[in-house]
Amino acid sequence: MLIDRRSFVLGSAATVAGMSFWPRRAIGRPTPPQILHWSMTSKNTSAVVSLELGGNSLAIYSDGQVMVIDTKFPYLGAALREDAVSLAGSGIESVAMLNTHHHGDHTGGNHAFVGRGESHAHIKAISRIAGQFERYKAGVAAAVAQAHQTMPDNHVLAQLAAETAENADSLKPEDWVPKHAVGDGDALTVGTLDLSISHFGPGHTDNDVVVRVEQDNLIHTGDLVFSGLHPFFDPDGGGSASGWIKSLEGTLALCDEDTVVVPGHGPVGGREIIAAAKDYLEKLVTAVQYEIDQGTPKEKVVEMSWPFMDGLGFEQIRSRAIDFVYDELTGA
């Protein structure tokens, strides 16, 4: 039976355990013990996929180098960094980092990386991250409580969170701000791996970047894709529903039928999760425009639901998505 590479990721651990393509690890299974739970997503990458822990993080490792894509919340930064070093192997002195956009659940752990390795984000993300210090500072103060709340039995995480909180007074705004700007068409390397950066304009925010690991045929979409979830719209983040659709069209063009897709939130999949996100937004725009044309008051429209929304997670932000699209379509 022929099994494509994406089937390894989406298949069960039992299915892949007997495969011999990469004897050290089995695609889709947990990696060797780490502080956080990492699942292998390709030959040279592993991801932390958890709705409770913020945006999905990806570690890319090759030839003694490692890069982390998105750093979650402040209390998780040190754990992500230690795990990345462990995943990459011995002798690692620096860990590179890249943010897919500026939101705090993707950038909060930056303090554990910035100044200790190369750090990257879109130029507009860099300026927005620089303005979020008070939010990060609050996250550091709450580090111990958040570690206990999300992973109460993880004593190593608890210790790292406590150390983060103890160092609160020494942390400065620049400890979160990436040093290097990346944009559409840029290229980075991790060991022998080539990374391609794409930016399609305003989408989820005005600073979204998609990272493609060329040799592994894998992409991290950031929050352009919420897999199996209602998408989060941020009125202050420079996003656009119409631009988001165009961004997803561009992201789809980066994929073939075997591409592994790591979304910003929700489970890993293939190009079909990008297509589903695009379909959701297109149907949402059409549905809201119909109600506008019918003269339905906004307060009624935002309470509506349609079949394409059935069964999705993040139900608490459904009305927020409708509200954003209504305002965009009416020019409010």
Shape: globular
Quote the average pLDDT: 91
Helix and strand pattern:
HHEEEEHEHEHHHHEEEEEHEHHH
Q: How far do the termini sit from each other?
A: 55 Å
Strand content: 5-15%
Which sequence of strands runs across the widest sheet?
Answer: 1-2-3-4-5-6-7
Specify the oligomeric state.
single chain
User: What is the second-level CATH architecture?
Assistant: 4-Layer Sandwich
Gyration radius, to the nearest Å?
A: 20 Å
What are the segments in which pLDDT stays under 50 over at least 5 consecutive residues? 1-27
* CATH-level-4 superfamily name: Ribonuclease Z/Hydroxyacylglutathione hydrolase-like
User: What is the CATH C-level name?
Assistant: Alpha Beta
Number of domains: 1
User: Within the CATH hierarchy, at the fold level, what is the topology?
Assistant: Metallo-beta-lactamase, Chain A
Can you give a write-up of this model?
It is a single chain. With 332 residues, the chain is α/β, with parallel strands linked by helices. The protein has one domain (5-330): Ribonuclease Z/Hydroxyacylglutathione hydrolase-like (Metallo-beta-lactamase, Chain A, 4-Layer Sandwich), CATH 3.60.15.10. Helices cover 35% and strands 14% of the residues. The chain has helices at residues 5-10, 13-17, 77-88, 104-107, 123-130, 133-141, 143-150, 155-166, 241-252, 271-294, 298-301, 318-330; strands at residues 39-42, 45-48, 57-62, 65-69, 96-98, 119-121, 180-181, 187-190, 193-198, 210-213, 218-220, 260-262. A 7-stranded mixed beta sheet has the order 1-2-3-4-5-6-7. It has a 5-stranded mixed beta sheet with strand order 8-9-10-11-12. Helix 10 (271-294) packs across helix 12 (318-330).
